[in-house]
Design a protein that fits this description.
The protein is an alpha+beta fold. It has two domains: about 160 residues, 2-Layer Sandwich (Ribosomal Protein S5, domain 2), CATH 3.30.230; about 110 residues, Alpha-Beta Plaits. The radius of gyration is 19 Å and the shape is globular. Catalyzes the phosphorylation of the position 2 hydroxy group of 4-diphosphocytidyl-2C-methyl-D-erythritol.
Length: about 300
């Protein structure tokens, strides 16, 4: 258990409500460069945070209950990453309070854009603030890593170059372009992609400098396009507007644009042509909206 000295928690703090964003991310490139002895794949990726995502409203409880609403179909409350984040904080600090957490879901599940990991990170960061636990960023990122490899980048809240299994982070400054993100209406099985015999697992090791030039690719993309024709079709549709990439293991694909107006036109055209598709527009940011929102609470 992490031992911390906490200030007196006022009655006002116990009845406060905190609403915070849980932003999406894009993988501007994703290389699989080997495999560790424990079986996990070694990755190199460039995380671009966006100014669009989910939203969590956190309200403290006087008991230890953690209740997330609305519930996710076929996912028990205790298995929800948001609940697991709260429980991990309780276990790490001995905190005896609970929380009611309202999730406003805007990001597609299983889209490769970090929705679940970002929700988890916002719960960690937000409850640390709401419960006045006093954990620093390193401690929260360490807890987050036990819940998912992508959670630390959202906890730290900066666009970053990542290595290892995605947890070795180096903050970077990226151009703040607009992106059109399309979900082609399919759910990708990440384990199936990792098991696929045609997945490239030995891409040569790259560098931050090379990645920042726009070089690189996503090693999951060829397999995802083979297994999921909708992803292949979405990439073909978007390719008329620029260089298209798959984010994470999919299913979302994205293209960079120079303006919000151009992005609106592309999104409208693609979704009107393909009724089963959905999408959104997000601007790349170097500091997470989560950290900016917390700064406003200070």
């Amino acid at each position: 258990m992490i031992r911390i000295a906490r200030p007196f928690i006022s009655e006002a703090a116990l009845t406060a409500t905190l609403t915070l964003p849980a932003p999406a991310k894009l993988n501007l490139m994703l290389h699989i460069v080997g495999r560790r002895d424990d079986g996990y794949h070694r990755l190199q990726t460039l995380f671009q945070l966006l100014d669009f995502g989910d939203e969590l409203t956190l309200t403290p409880r006087h008991d230890t209950e953690v209740r997330v609403s609305p519930s996710i179909p076929d996912v028990a409350n205790e298995d929800n990453l948001i609940t697991r984040a709260a429980r991990a904080l309780q276990d790490a600090t001995g905190h005896t309070g609970g929380a009611d957490i309202q999730l406003t879901k805007r990001l597609p599940m299983g889209g490769g854009i970090g929705g679940g990991s970002s929700d988890c990170a916002t719960a960690l960061v937000g409850l640390n603030h709401l419960w006045q636990l006093g954990l620093d960023e390193d401690a929260l990122a360490e807890i987050g890593l036990t819940l998912g490899a992508d959670v630390p980048v959202f906890v730290r809240g900066r666009s970053a170059w990542a290595e290892g299994i995605g947890e070795e982070l180096t903050p970077v400054e990226l151009p703040e372009h607009w992106f059109v993100v399309i979900h082609p209406g399919v759910h990708v099985s990440t384990p199936a992609l990792f098991r696929h015999p045609q997945l490239t697992r030995n891409t040569p090791v790259s560098t931050i400098r090379t990645a920042l030039t726009g070089a690189g690719h996503n090693d999951f993309e060829p397999v995802a396009r083979t297994l999921y024709p909708n992803i292949d079709h979405a990439i073909e549709q978007l390719s008329q507007y620029g260089s298209v990439r798959l984010s994470g293991s999919g299913a979302c694909v994205f293209v960079q644009t120079q303006s919000d107006m151009a992005a609106q036109t592309i999104l409208r055209t693609i979704t009107e042509r393909n009724p089963g598709y959905s999408g959104f527009i997000g601007r790349g940011v170097n500091q997470s909206p989560l950290q900016r929102a917390l700064a406003d609470q200070a």
